[in-house]
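Homework-ish question, so no full write-ups if that breaks the rules, but can someone show me the predicted structure for this set?
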Amino acid sequence: MSAIVVKNLVKEYGSVRALNGISLTVEEGEFFCLLGPNGAGKTTFIKVITGQTRGRGHVRVLGVDPMRDPVEVRRRTGIVPETESVPTYLTPWEYLYLVCRIRGVEDAEDRVERYIREFDLREYEDRLCKELSKGTRQRLMIAAAFIHDPPLVVLDEPFINLDPLYQRKFSRYFLKKVDEGTTLLMCTHIIEIAQKLCRRFAVIYRGQVRAMIEDGEDVESAFLRAVGYDAEDLSD
Amino acid sequence: MLRTFLIEEYRRHIAYVKRLSFYLFPLYVIAFTGLFALLFDDIVAESGYATTMLTLLGGYALYGVGSGAFGFLGQQYMQRNFREFYLISLPALHPIRYRHTFMLVYIRDLVYYSVLMIFPVTAGLALTQPVSGFSWYSIARFTLCSFLAFMYGYSLSFLMSILFFRNRAAFAAVGLAVALYLAGGAVGVLSRALVLPFYALYMTSDFRWFIVSVVFCIVTTLLGYIATPDEFIFRERRAGKLLPRLEFRAFGESRTLVAKEITDMVRGRVFYKVIAAYVVPVFLLGVLSRIIDIAAPEVYGSTLFYAVMLGFFSVVLYSWLTNLDDYSYMNLLPVRMPDLLRIHIITYMLVSTVLTLPLLFLLSAALGEMYLFPVAAWIFTVNSFYLITLIVYLTGNRTYSMLFDPEVIVKFGVATILPEVALLIITMVGYRDPLLFAWSIGIFTSVLLLNAVLYYSGAKKRWLEEEF
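A: Not a homework solution, just the prediction itself:
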């Protein structure tokens, strides 16, 4: 069964068409990657499929239409946003607790304790979120996205602000979650990391899917071709 | 540099409201002033010339108090988890001092308030001059005095807000001195002209009061400028697990989010501001009413009057509630805007009731009207519930837009002035005819409650699709 089905999705901001007829499918249990340069429409795509904003077209996420029932889609998914968006006056412990309570997680306190430990947040658990470093906030956002064991997690530039150690650690963590059956959709423009983690890729450029790349292809070359460059154009 | 700050402010306004609304704002002010000018003789006949002018100029001073406290805002811009970068925080990255950026904001806001409010009033008076018959001299005199009155509140507020986060002891000491100074004028120990020199200037045209007013504004502004720190060091705060301790079962499914709002208020130190929002207006109201000798004691001094006024002031609390946190993370959770608005209303009613009822109790005891306390508590609760649902309906979670959007201001004005005036009139009747009072207050508060329910239902539909 498909976790995400999108057909001919259009999103306009005034006269600007951010998404221009995107169609793609993400299967359950796969680690799918959306590649694209800055401003290609990746974040807008994520916002539409998670019900954060409305678009036009056919969208089903875990069988639910996010434009009709955005709350249900967000109940079933975890989202790591592009910017680390955390509450100003809560501590990481309290934020994770709040997420658990809103999402109806039983034994919320035990769950929070486990995630604080697993995500190395113990030494920051009593600091206010606004005072955390960007990298620590990013770890907190990733923890908040996974804490309710959702069947689908959408990751918008999850490695941004993370040091190489945590990039490795979270790469392993994501692969472990996929092995356990979680579907992951990741947006990034860091091709090297994406290539190590994902099996299928879609290249978005100017609001359209310009290429689908399957495992085994040279992702970088295919990406550059899709956005109108040749690898030789960028060589020294 | 100032030009860049002005452009930033202009773009922020445009981001809050439609461009057309921004340009229409001074026109609304001109129209309202023109109407006021035409009715001026009737108002003076009813209230007296001195009272009318004091109320008008006192209103400008209070407006200045509300506008000049951007020391708080400046601090928030730097400290809070905003998504935008504001020019006031330039010193964090560039070789410029905070006192310079704060002074630029001071001048910038002064320009905006003058262009959007003070000078349109003059234009309204000037345009209706052939009909109202005001002399050009009195229009010019009023413009000057209203500007000085605004500056009086604005510069004082600037200084106090800077002191608040620079040095709490200095803030308390200066605050006490200012309170004693105003109280001295209210009870007649100090010359009232010395306390309100802009008013004395208007009434007497004595140039000395112009000098006093200008010196006061320059000194407070300079002190604020000097007191602005060179760096903002936000000490890392350790915080315990407060949120779970504030989850009260009585709030059902809303309890976690209500607990989160209260946690924000505690850690965002909103309670200081709330107390200031209640105590300062009530105090200033007391000062004004004492200075206005002709004030009818059964109106200005009554518990029921304060119940209505406190309900009105407490609305400021909602504005802070919506501006306390960056709620964008809620886009990631299974909640929608009406859920947050419901939480805001619950929190607002809880906090405003807990804070205001003791104050009302003390006021009724001080006025020897304890028997009126239950009615006053009921009036306060219903009135604030009505006002808050109206604000929620009009502004959702963007209450600050109310300060800029003329459409919202007009709608808010229409929906509040009539009920508030009616409520005040009914509370005055209470002293004369208890039976009539009981009936009228019962019917009127029921109508307010019904309207509140309608506003709330409307707000749920209106803001359903709104992003956080």
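Now go work out the reasoning yourself. Hint: Chain A touches chain B at residues 47, 50, 52-54, 70-72, 74-75, 79, 81, 83, 85-91, 93-94, 97-99, 101-103, 109, 126-131, 144-145 (CB under 8 Å).
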